[in-house]
Amino acid sequence: MKTNLTKILALLLITGLVFQSCKPKNAGNASSSGSAEKAYVAPGKYDEFYNLVSGGFSGQMSVYGLPSGRLFRVIPVFSVDPEKGYGYSEETKPMLNTSHGFVPWDDLHHTELSQTNGEVDGRWIFGNANNTPRVARIDLASFKTAEIIELPNSAGNHSSPFITENTEYVVAGTRFSVPPDNANGDIPIDTYKENFKGYISFISVKKESGEMDLAFQIECPGVNFDLSHAGKGKSNGWFFFSCYNTEQANTLLEVNASQRDKDFIMAVNWKKAEEYIKAGKAKRIPAKYAHNKYNEKTHTATSEMKKEVLVLDAKALKDICYFIPCPKSPHGCDVDPTGEYIVGSGKLAALIPVFSFDKMLKAIEGKQFDGSFEGIPVIKYEAALYGEVKKPGLGPLHTEFDGKGNAYTTFFVSSEVVKWNIKDLKVLDRAPTYYSVGHLCIPGGDSKKPNAKYLIAYNKITKDRYLPTGPELTQSAQLYDISGDKMEMILDFPTIGEPHYAQAISADLVRDRSIKFYKINENENKYVTKGEGQAKVVREGNVVHVYMTSIRSHFAPDNIEGIKMGDVVYFHVTNLEQDWDVPHGFAIKGATNAELLIMPGETQTMKWEPDKVGIFPMYCTDFCSALHQEMSGYIRVSPKGSSVPLSYSLGKTKPIAKN
Amino acid sequence: MIKITFGQIGLKSAQYVDFQEFIAPIIYTYRRESLLYDCTHKVQNIWAITLSQQKNHTMKTVTMMLALSLWLTSCGSNDGSNASADSSAQAASSESAGGNPDYDPKRGTGKFTDVVISPTLDKALAEKGKATSDVKCGSCHKLTDEKLVGPGWKGVTSRHTPAWILNFMTNTDEMINKDPVAQAQLEICLVRMPNQNLSDDEAKSLYEYMRQNDGVK
């Protein structure tokens, strides 16, 4: 018995160790023991913010909760997503159409929330495609991609999708200058200086519907446009773009585009551009670009190929664009909440220049120019400069603001976030990142009204922060509490793809607008089946349309015979459920595309071309009820020319299909 | 995962035993009693532990119980606020109205109380009900007394009061969670009736359609 007592005591001691382990630990090198509590959101509780993060080379956008860092959803935008049938269902295929045809992948770098009066409003979020230049609008009621517009005369849409303060325009600037689309492109690459142009695009956004249209483009000199931000408040009406490779190199840019001491920030007077368009100064230039829209009533996307675009010539019109010299290949181009200060971050510089909007206007008025570049006036550096942040760190990239007079800049080379005061340009605090931070995000941090409780750093390198998973490691973000004077790291969390820019917004502005299901009575899909009584199979030559319904837990019909080799079968599946969180899936053995995932009240279509004679099972892939495993059926495929009549059934009934 | 070797607790046996074998039934019992409800998210911490085997099985259980009770004490207090998640699944496992004297099983629970029904049929209303039924109900309910996914509708208006039926149609989740008759039906069908988000008018028209089906003229 004595030994037993010893054992009990020993166990109790060990149990004590277990309690210790209940407490969070190792939350980060720089964190205190209270950090984990700050990032802890209890089971069943909601997060305070949505964090909408670019998915980089995944082409998608991801949705996290803050402060927990929990991943809620990956929204398919520019890449196909077999899980959701995006880009595979007949209804969603047109979303990925371009002037090059169907493009299944892209590289989404930046996200930008719609704004009203310079404040984030939670209606839409935009994303850019960096490879095949496009801009997407995601509806934050459905968290689905609502629209994608392609950009002609562009290559590598990087300085996008930044917006004006009432979401009048979303902009896009070409990263790679190229010969315009309607010019002869079959020319030597080393004629860059003569033949390559840099186009920036202004996409208008309709106030109520959000529908986008390519309003106009401005032809600028051939350089690399990198990032941009709109003026706000007093500087509303202007847009600022950073650009590098003003050397106009076409090879070994790593060296050849880093020759000049200063490149430029280009200030664009878009109100002036509007005036010129009204005055008829823009040219209609032939172009070819796709405009794809998803209709929430028909649950179907359409793709329209547009044929021309309005173009303004910056050189000829003289006073739309101005260059401001900015040291060493500027990357981030960020405007403070008052609209007065423009922060340029030369990624090879060891200082941060801060430009003054007022001084810039005066310099333009007083013609304080330092000559011109390719016909565009270059404002004298000192004439536009408010001041420089000296020795802030190495490799400044991006800046966000807290609305309390402070700026937060990321430093890639020295792996840190640095807080500094905009007025006196003094460094106030620095916090390490793990490792090599790129973008950062403060909720509303690029708007007129930041909600500066947290700062999220999106890192390029993770190295030793997570358990290894072979050569490729997780991408990651780090959360800092910035409510006090000092930044405090409170959480690491993994992200999908490579996170570039991100936006965050108070959940209150988004949560209650979420669609829970689509009303079946409002479903206008051409192939909707409103009730099992309408379920049917119709043959039109070798095309077979299956009008199918799904509800917990069966398909109607679930037995189909008389399909023949050579047939093209369309399964139009309508989910009859009218409750939240009850999608049904649909999959067929051997299908060469993907599954369907059908939201309540929605219709989605799978195209299927049977590849052999036999019996093919189909089933629901999304666990829907206790009898989900029963939610299945069979399709019989007969040889070409077989006399098996087309028939379909559910349960006992077995009517013969109308031919 | 925390691994405790036999040496640490002075035992000779080197065999490892999955903790779950012993702790799972205990925790399950506690869960059933809702005593552990606040702490369930931490159960996995315990779950992952392996302990070196002890010789006496009863002894093991006793030890685990002791360990667990201590653990409960230490974890219970700061997690009290977690239990408010209101998913239907969780609500389902809480109280049933069966033993509640205030619950009116004839009426059910929902917005409908005293529903006055005309002795004659409103044909136009019944027609509307049929249209709604074709889209939202007919997949699972037959008009005969045959059970498909849910029970057949024949005779339903004599089995339940109008208020009960209307409440069940419009307040489905709460009814399934609380109403003893609805719960008994769930045990037969095993598929929770989907909330089809019927408006009050849709529900009333469906009721009229059920009456027509039951022979009201």
Automatic annotation (TrEMBL), chain A:
Assigned EC number: 1.7.2.4
SUPFAM superfamilies given in the database record: Cupredoxins (SSF49503), Nitrous oxide reductase, N-terminal domain (SSF50974)
Q: What class of enzyme is it?
A: oxidoreductase
Does the record bear Oxidoreductase in its keywords? yes
Question: What Pfam families does UniProt report for this protein, alphabetically?
Answer: nos_propeller
Question: Coiled-coil ranges per the record?
Answer: none
Say yes or no: keyword Signal present.
Answer: yes
Query: Which residues does UniProt assign to the signal peptide?
Result: 1-20
Q: Where in the cell is it found?
A: Cell envelope
Q: What is its main location?
A: other
One Gene Ontology molecular-function label: nitrous-oxide reductase activity
Please give the NCBIfam families that the UniProt record associates with this protein.
Answer: nitrous_NosZ_Gp
Protein name as it appears in the record: Sec-dependent nitrous-oxide reductase
State which gene encodes it: nosZ
